[in-house]
Write a structure and sequence with these properties.
Helices cover 43% and strands 14% of the residues. By secondary structure, it is of the alpha/beta class. The longest helix is centred in the middle third of the chain and has 15 residues. It binds ligand AN7.
Length: 348
Amino acid sequence: MRMKGILSRYKTLLPINPGTPLVSLGEGETPLIPLKTLGEELGLRLFAKYEGTNPTGSFKDRGMVLAVAKALEAGAKGLVCASTGNTSASAAAYAARSGLPCTVLLPKGKVASGKLAQALIHGARVVSIRGNFDEALELALALSREMGLAVVNSVNRYRLWGQRSVAWEMVDELGRSPDAVVLPVGNAGNITAGWAGFVQYRRAGKADSVPAMIGVQAEGAAPLALGKPCPAPETVATAIRIGRPVNGKKASWAVRMSGGKFLAVSDEEILGAQRRLAADEGVFAEPASCAGIAGLLRYAGQGLIPRGSTVVAILTGNGLKDPDTAAAGAGAPLEIDAEVGVLREALS
Ligand code: AN7
């Protein structure tokens, strides 16, 4: 059987040596889906890189698999992370896979139900912090120092290195770099990693250009779009409810070098983009994931991207991660007695 996953597929592009275990749950190789309806409306050749098909349902698996492999290689006793949800789900799964204990610190009441269920069922020690993500991350860093645990947040360089693979897959499939990539930004790890991936591919002669990296934040949690920290972040897109992005400096550099931009969109625009993706394209992504599309819907016509450009929107997480938000916005089903006449009537 062919070994699947990021580590085997991109061995030569990653910091892998004979002592690195090739951990895998079959991450990567996510679909690049043409978005015909939205693309025509926006005058773009538009694709979604749908990261929801990763093993735990988000892009985090690309970097987590490498971070966990390197933790095993270094003989780590366990893993720790703070998370708005997806990192904890991914860490918990790869820890279970590798036989490592895992502690996850989550902002109380602000983690989507699917993600919380994942962290719990994979057997992580789940601690609910009465505070926001930024506070939970400080605790995770302190705990790692005291207990000698490997931190698997995006302060871990291997996380970002593995996440470069999303860029490599785009170029491999399109046969070239897109003109622009739009994606949601929280801790600003993914936008930094994506940019680094394109740069690494260009150096290796596998791509001739680096796309404009366009990072989109929620208005209530937009430290990079506004250029100042956000002490009390708030947004329906809980995945990106982050006020002090740990990779902010690196990401600002990456965005500037690429000719890109940081933007902010409202929660209404995020939920509107989520509905349009689901109803017009058949693609169900979690709210945060839809910030990039919301950014295009608001700014594409204002000279953000030349018409006809090839644009990839990274949809970072599966819609099933946060069923409550989706259901709350989508209306209730019809309920009827089990009779065909009543059914015909109800549907007419
Ligand atoms: C769906 O899980 O920070 O800008 O702790 O879950 O690289 O932080 C999640 C972030 C975008 C932002 N989309 O990525 C966590 C966490 C989804 C996410 C982001 C996250 P970064």
